Amino acid sequence: MAKTAGFYLARDWRPIFLAPLLSKWAMVFAAALYPSASEGLGRRFQKDTGTRELTWASVWTVGGVALAGIPGIWASAAVCLFTLSFAKFVLRRVPGFTGDIYGALGELSEVVALTVGVSVGL
Fold first, then answer.
1. 42, HSE (Cβ side, Cα atoms, 13 Å)
2. Residue 50: left if φ>0, alpha if ψ -120 to 50, beta else—which one?
3. In 1-122, where does DSSP find H-type helix?
4. I need a labelling partner for 60 at 20 to 30 A (CA). Which of 1, 28, 52, 77 fits?
């Protein structure tokens, strides 16, 4: 619902383009830098994600943010800060990331990107 509301408030293609891009980058960032909690799909995702994948995800994300302009920079900064805060929150409670936690990070990152994007005129 938040995704749809963000699109109608902005009346632009940039939020719909940028929010999923930033959320996928947040998941790759977390998988590359933080440990996994247990065996499962999250462990497979984390095991197959390294600096090469993070570099490519960052290159594509910077390109997308450049297309979105200054509001895109604000949205990407907000998602980056949210990802760091979310990881700190998670790692205080469980020993690492699971597939469900990666999914939650992706969804919440989209909401953050849409909210900030609409707030600053994306």
1. 20
2. beta
3. 2-10, 14-33, 41-47, 51-68, 70-93, 99-119
4. 1
Q: Could you state, in order of their start, the residue ranges of all structural domains in the chain?
A: 2-119
Q: Phi first, then psi: what are they for 97, rounded to 5°? A: -90, 145
> What is the pTM (predicted TM-score) of this model?
0.85
d(CA 3, CA 87) in angstroms, rounded, equals 23
Distances (CA, A) of 66 to 8, 53, 70, 116, 122: 22, 20, 8, 16, 12
Q: Among residues 122, 116, 38, which one has the least CA distance to residue 75? A: 116
Model confidence at 120, pLDDT cuts 50, 70, 90, reads confident
C-alpha 56, offset from chain centre: 15
Percent of the chain with pLDDT over 90: 60
